Amino acid sequence: MKSAPTIAFDVRPSRWIGAAAGFVAALAAVAPWLSALPAVACAAVSLTVLAAAACALHQHARPRFVRVAWRASGWSLIDRAGNEHAALLISHAHLGPLLALGFRDGPRSHFRIVLAPDNLDRQTRRRLILLLARAEVAHAE
User: Fold this and answer.
1) Is residue 109's pLDDT more than 50?
2) Beta bridge partners of 115
3) Domain ranges in the chain?
4) Which residues contact 87 (CB under 8 A, 6 or more apart)?
5) pLDDT value of residue 107
6) How many beta carbons lie within 10 A of that of residue 137, not counting itself?
7) Which of 39, 54, 64, 81 has the least CB density, counted as fewest CB within 10 Å?
8) CB-hemisphere CA count at 13 Å for 89?
9) pTM of the predicted protein model
């Protein structure tokens, strides 16, 4: 197998993750009504949960960067205007079918993405996992 000199993929929000987050938010909005809290407190908590969930789902649906690329020169994040931002991969985790990547694209700026089977094709996922494993081995040496 040839090693890939570059890997690039579009950042698309996962419908699975969006649906799971919406479901958990709905449960959290209903939970206060099953407690002994006064109705005003239940309404306040439910509205707060729904507002926070709406903000989080909006950020999930419209990420800051639309493309991630790895080249020999390092990681790049491409925004909606097509501008490239050099980035440093600061964390990654392979959690069952999910692959979480954390990037630093500035001194105080972070970008995190969770890749699920519905927002990254199988071949690119495999190549990315191999690249991350190689980077771990190289970093350990």
Assistant:
1) yes
2) 99
3) 7-12+64-140, 16-61
4) 74, 75, 76, 77, 103, 104, 105, 111
5) 85
6) 9
7) 81
8) 20
9) 0.79
